[in-house]
Specification:
Elements: E1 5-12, E2 15-20, E3 24-28, H1 34-42, E4 51-53, E5 60-66, H2 74-80, E6 86-89, E7 92-98, H3 102-117, H4 136-157, H5 161-172
Parallel strand pairs: 1-4
Antiparallel strand pairs: 1-2, 2-3, 5-7, 6-7
């Protein structure tokens, strides 16, 4: 395991264990603190990226999906049977999910919420979208946040998925 990786295991009894092989371990009450503890164990500043690895050996991504507005009855179902790797802590669904990338993990959860629960994932909790600073994790989460907002609003307008993918492909080429 590289020096910039940490194993995240949990939850066990309401806590998560962060392990950096040959360096040490820490216990956190939420996976949102795992990267901070991994950096502390490694002696790294906040500018350094740390990759969290789940028990399966896959990269693990920690993020929140916020639900705003009126209480949706689907939230009751979500609270009693949340998606794997997630737990409801209103107004957010907090998650530590594996994926091929952060965007893939968030997109897969968004699809699961829409199909399995009838809920739209349209907010990852950024208040200052114009700020582009910090670790790669925050910058990736911001890109996912903006894409979720675009997907949600495109669906409201009745735009097909191809309209968004064509737009992204054209804009990025």
């Amino acid at each position: 395991m590289d020096r910039n990786r940490a194993l995240l295991i949990g939850p066990t009894g309401g806590t998560w264990r962060v392990t950096v092989p040959h360096v040490g371990e820490a216990v956190v009450t939420t996976p949102r603190l795992a990267d901070f503890e991994a950096r502390r164990l490694l002696g790294l500043s906040a500018d350094h990226d740390v990759e969290l690895i789940g028990p399966s050996g896959q990269p693990l991504y920690v993020f929140d999906v916020l639900f705003t507005g009126a209480h949706d009855p689907a939230l009751d179902v979500l609270a009693s049977d949340p998606p794997a790797g997630c737990w409801l802590n209103l107004p957010a669904l907090q998650c530590a999910r594996p994926g091929a990338s952060r965007l893939a993990a968030i997109a897969e959860l968004a699809a699961e919420l829409r199909v399995g629960y009838g809920l739209e994932a349209g907010d990852l909790g950024f208040e200052r979208l114009w700020e582009w600073a910090g670790q790669r994790e925050w910058r990736e989460r911001m890109v996912a946040h903006l894409l979720l907002m675009a997907v949600q609003r495109a669906r409201w307008l009745g735009l097909p998925p191809e309209a968004l993918t064509t737009f992204v492909r054209t804009a990025m080429n």
